[in-house]
């Protein structure tokens, strides 16, 4: 019989005590309130605030979001239990203020962060660009935060962070796992204004539906279409957001009919069910796509060419955005701007008239 040293026995005993302590800590953590962060972004005037208010059960008239706004929601798990907290951020201005994603995405909340992308279905010509720019900005900054965490090994809160969120989002049996590129944090895509979208030509609806289904599946995201006038669609959207915000059970209903609002929780779609892009008058091989996502983009933009972005780039300053206009204040501001320009011209003339001693 092999001889067991006293040191080995103490090591085994110490490891057993640590394991018991860890289990007790896990049990305690299960009863503690949680805090999660949900970041809403998407199409300008696309209905983000309306959706957010309905999710929070607030009977308020939505107002235009100025730059970046914060609110929160609370939910009790049961009677006489501490309430879980959801920190809710909303980015206004569409793609014009995408640089602000760095504010709600931090090392402190990255392990509990989720993103909700709201796309205006009534404006398909700006849909792809909005999606591409905003998801690109968010993904880039999430990557920077993860890189900084990997260098230190932990977040500023002192808790060990996962180096890769993919295992937490996609299980091993996830459909087409090897063929997709999941978003680094949980993602929900909401197509708003279905009441307008449903009047589109059936072929155009089919292109939009199949494209968004592919994009959602490619990013490992859930997808739902909503109509702010329909309690049914808003209730389903609320359930999906509550899953991200409070960890509630994921809805199981699925709808893939293009004539009805889509409802597809992450992991319940597949490339075989989605099928190829709708290409009635184009040879896919002639599009020279770099990857599957690029192929779907090229096909989509042949049907819905991207709008001119010149106007959007000019509206980086929210003060120049017409949706935030205040006639009285704007008139005073214009007057002051004129006075400033006049003062600058006078000062320039006075400097030119000065004669300096040789």
Protein architecture, described:
This protein is of the alpha/beta class and 358 residues long. It has eleven helices and seven strands. It has a seven-stranded mixed sheet with strand order 2-3-1-4-5-6-7, sandwiched between helices. Helix 6 packs antiparallel against helix 9. The longest helix has 27 residues.
Arrangement of strands in the largest sheet: 2-3-1-4-5-6-7
DSSP helix fraction:
40-55%
Structural class: alpha/beta
Helix count, DSSP H or I runs of 4 or more residues: 11
**Overall pLDDT:** 83
Assembly state:
single chain
Care to count the β-strands?
7
Ends apart, CA distance between termini: 105 Å
What is the molecular shape?
globular
- CA radius of gyration is 26 Å
What portion of the residues fall into strands of 2 or more residues?
5-15%
| Element-level helix/strand string | HEHEEEHHEHHEHEHHHH
Low-confidence stretches: 155-169, 310-314
SSE order and pairing:
Blueprint: H1 6-31, E1 35-42, H2 48-55, E2 68-76, E3 83-91, E4 113-120, H3 127-152, H4 166-169, E5 187-192, H5 194-197, H6 202-218, E6 222-225, H7 231-246, E7 263-264, H8 271-274, H9 292-303, H10 310-314, H11 327-353
Parallel strand pairs: 1-3, 1-4, 4-5, 5-6
Antiparallel strand pairs: 2-3, 6-7
